[in-house]
Amino acid sequence: MVLALLTVSVSSCLKSGREGDSHEAAAFGDVALQRFEQIGGDFTLVDQYGKPFTLSAQKGKAVLLFFGYLTCPDVCPTTLLELAQIRKELGKDADQVIFAFVTVDPHRDKPEKLKDYLINFDPAFLGLYGEPDEIAKVSELYKVAYKRREQPSALGYTIDHSSGTYLIDKAGDLRYIFAFGSKHPFVIKGIEKVLALP
């Protein structure tokens, strides 16, 4: 399945290229929602305010989930800017969607740093943190690949990681994986389809 393969597509966060989405290219403006038997699931992490975030407790709202890290120079801030614009374009429907950023760099991205960073994009964005083993478990659930890469720089290391955005329906089930660079109307169509589900 093409969408499943997207989950292991890894970006160094140093590239500006757009992966694109094969379904988007084939039929722009339409999103065929999927059911993933081996990707996704419930989890609990802590948000930037120190409050527990459990996916199953968000039932009744859609969730857009993105994995990244705060010192990512390219893919992560680009995606967050795009998601902030998408949230604006959703209008009143935005209140029915949770936008959540899961750090894959828990050694550096503590909750307070997540709060200070994400407020620059949208105050409504949630930043989710956990201990390294907790992040590893959530990443495994969603087949997110990430790997620390040592660099001779002030940062010390970067992290190669998957760059897809996960659309989860109101029942907590994964329904679509958007590739990096997916067009706003395409993402919004997917969100609207999920919100229309019973």
Question: What does the model show?
Answer:
Disulfide bonds join 72-76. InterPro entries: SCO1/SenC, Thioredoxin-like_sf, Thioredoxin_domain. Residues 34-198 form the Thioredoxin domain. Keywords: Copper, Disulfide bond, Metal-binding. The chain has 198 residues and is an alpha+beta fold. It has a single domain, classed as Glutaredoxin. Helices cover 28% and strands 23% of the residues. It has six helices and ten strands. It has helices at residues 2-6, 22-26, 75-89, 111-118, 132-141, 184-195, and strands at 10-11, 44-46, 52-54, 62-68, 97-103, 126-128, 146-150, 157-162, 165-168, 174-178. The strands form three sheets. It has a five-stranded mixed β-sheet. It has a three-stranded antiparallel β-sheet with strand order 1-8-7, with no helix packed on it. The radius of gyration is 16 Å and the shape is globular. Mean pLDDT is 88; it is low at 1-9, 14-20 and 22-28.
